[in-house]
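Narrative of activities, Objective 1.

The group set out to show that a structural description can be obtained from nothing but a protein's sequence at a throughput compatible with the screening campaign. Below is one input-output pair from the validation batch, recorded exactly as produced.
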Amino acid sequence: MNTSTRIVILYNSPIETGPLATAYAESDAGVLNEVAAAEESLARHGFSVRRAGVRRLADIPPALAAGPERLVFNLVERLDDSFTAFNFVPAVCDALGRSCTGGSSDALGLTLDKWIAKARLKACGVGVADAVMLSPGANMPDLPPFPLIVKPAAAGGSEGIDAALSIVRDTSALLRAATRIHEQFDQPALAERFIEGREFNLSVIERNGRPEVLPVAEIDFSLFPPDRPHIVDYAVKWIPGTIPGHVSPRKVPADIDAASNAHLRSEALKAWLACGCRDYARIDFRMDREGRTYVLEVNVNPDISPLAGLPAALKAAAISYDDFILAMVANARARLVAIEPPG
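Output recorded for this entry:
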């Protein structure tokens, strides 16, 4: 079979032991749903697909050397080396003459660090909420006005966000929330001004060299029980039934006026460009009661399992899942020429 129709799906094997294995088993195992969906889509279109699970960066060279594939579908979201190690997967693939789907190592590293990402976005004219970093043992900095939301400085998938603990309204609660992050994640905590209002996310995909902003999705807080804070915490994102009767409390396309729709789409594209995204990303926003928008996070390589937000946006845009997967492979194939020019 021609190597152009061979592809290896590289993914992180779920954590088996330790505190994170227990606390975040759902998000860690969720990558397997992405693997299955991508594999089925590629197989439908004649690709020979091989799975390769890895735990550490050192596992990647032998995993790639085990087959002839030059194209890699990168679904690695965590590695045991450190909480930042997975950022280097695309660079390792490039160094080994492979081309992978999804964000570059530069974009992954920038966006995982929420503090640095905020600075980049703000410098590029994108609205972000005021925030401070709280490092273990450091003095308390000047704080934005309460309420604040406290989360890990470098984690995805709503990990570390808890409806009962993460929104704080005084310094004592802030210290407790930050200490929890320090102890559980071994990293600084980000304390960000909590924006009361609506929450949106916009998926962006790249096809034929151009980014396309998909229909605006909104988190439907009307579905939340009256006493539940209006945030997408870990339980809402990963544990079915947290919002009774609903898998995911989103509405896409969102019920939003034309001016707000145009503004969000423009801001999403600005954030995409500011962070050097490629292939696919999801940009999360809050909108306050005056209509001002703030980027919460730029998610490079977001969840692409069938029930996730990006596939829902694809459906709203009348783009099939298969067309999306094939477009990502086409992007990786085009980059392969730059890595390994034809002889």
